[in-house]
């Protein structure tokens, strides 16, 4: 039998097997003991990229007089530099947050371990900066929440030796109960204090109460991203660069039509991308544009209609979304089942479109979205309602390896994977105009 035919048969068998997977039952929301840390000691420490080889350290203290300083260096207990930052706080009905600190440190050396202490109090933390060249690995998990499945997902991410975590919305599932933001911060601190977490907002971050509380108050106060560095006017959408990747974080819950600030910012941001410097172009958002699950069906259509042409013209390689509590990957199979690189644009096969992935299955309290539309659309290559996480290793300027790891009895089982060719290497960027293409299927 021809090797390509053998591969095609094995691929079909693997898809059939995944459809028969018996999913384990849901797990309860985690309970957290009351913090016994002194009021001046840092809590909920997390870090994020801040541009120009810098890192933002964020944490909370109960002591409102605590200093927003960070001491850091490359040897434990020996700090060669010190930075002072800013602080904020917010009120939400009867809840008052602690003092929320944001301090930028650097410039830092790439691919280097640093030791740091926040506010001159508490334990010493350590972080590792991402590399400045390939290879680089991103962990991806959306819709995390605070359940037993969340805990399992975080354990699996911790095993994958990632450089940066990408989170396409729905973090804490606090849902107006503001103390749940504090417990979420404590839950993710072991990972989020050691590797940068880059996040965008989801519907569970809105938490608006008309006439009383503006939307995204907690999210914007606690999870400050480098929006100013990317010339964005809102913390709800921004971009950043790391190693050879330009990554755009879009806001599904900020205005996005052609007259909006986000639309004009995105158009300008994509126009400035230098694919010689950053050959990979990734986009994250919360509500998927391509979704064959019955949950949240059609919710991304308006944003897709407005912005998909911008992403296509810019030759975005990969679009990652959350919101739907299941996993799904696009990528066309041609008539001979040999070619997995038929991308998607305007619902049709297009070799110069992105690969679309939905990965809103981090472990939230609402459970899995297990009902799919039948028959499976042609653009959908793999779909399964299970909790898990994704990993994308960008190997070089032309190739990246994507894998999805199902939470199976607390073991990270790799259940789907695909090699992705960058559009830089495909010849798409050399074309001046791209007319409408008919489906190749």
Automatic annotation (TrEMBL):
CDD domains: MPP_PAPs. Residues 1-19 form the signal peptide. Residues 353-410 form the Purple acid phosphatase C-terminal domain. Its cofactor is Zn(2+); Fe cation. It catalyses: a phosphate monoester + H2O = an alcohol + phosphate. Coiled coil: none annotated. Keywords: Glycoprotein, Hydrolase, Iron, Metal-binding, Signal, Zinc. Residues 137-327 form the Calcineurin-like phosphoesterase domain. Residues 42-122 form the Purple acid phosphatase N-terminal domain. Its EC number is 3.1.3.2. This is Purple acid phosphatase. It comes from Linum tenue.
